[in-house]
Amino acid sequence: MTRTLQITRALVTAGLLETLRRKDLYVVLILTLLLTLGASAFRVFGVQGLEIFVKDVALTAIGVMTTVLTVLIAARQIPEEMQRRTIYPLMARPITRGQLLLGKWATATMTASLCFVILALTTLGLLLTLGIGVKPIFVQYVLLKLLGIGWLCAMVIALSLYMTPAANVTLSLILAFGSGLFGRLLLMAHWEHDLSALWLNLLYGVLPHYDYFDMSKKVVFDWDLAPWWVLGAMAGYAVLNGGAWLLMGWLRFRKQTIG
Known about the structure:
The protein is mostly helical. The protein is built from eleven helices and no strands.
């Protein structure tokens, strides 16, 4: 376990340095600048009576940008190592494929989480500058989003071992943005069946549910803090479901021919 942690820490450090080299954080800074300019426009015209609208637009923008960045960051972790053949010196070291997979997941999660935190804190500062208050539920929103980023990275990395990079990015974005819609369509299509039907619950449970990790609307409408056991349950879901995705990826990766 200690060696696995050391390998994971080394891969995360290398991944963050690679992120700086690729200037991924520059994209986040540009997006932050655009948010700032947008906030400046609101300051000119005033936001009285538009507080809910402004918060909704800001958090929706954060959600979209974070999801896209997370998918792009996670989707390239292993395929790029193979394409650039840098995976060979990695595998030449005393490191198992499972440790490499875990390290790449941690790298993607840490990188995407850093991008999200920068955007979230910037947006919070801009909202406060505009005189728009945010309740403590914003903290739960951030924590739940971080759990969602870890879950999403696990799914994308697992799919990257079964699909081409382009197909993986496309399918991952569809599953991420459409997860809530798929569930509602399923229930609407079978409205005549009782919701306690076993097959309906199994099918609904199998579908990816990235939407579970989004509390933005509750922040927008100033809800009180959710019970902390709910976040604990979501943490359990993220660990179990994300672990299942990583296991599925490992089952493929351990037998995959590299080259």
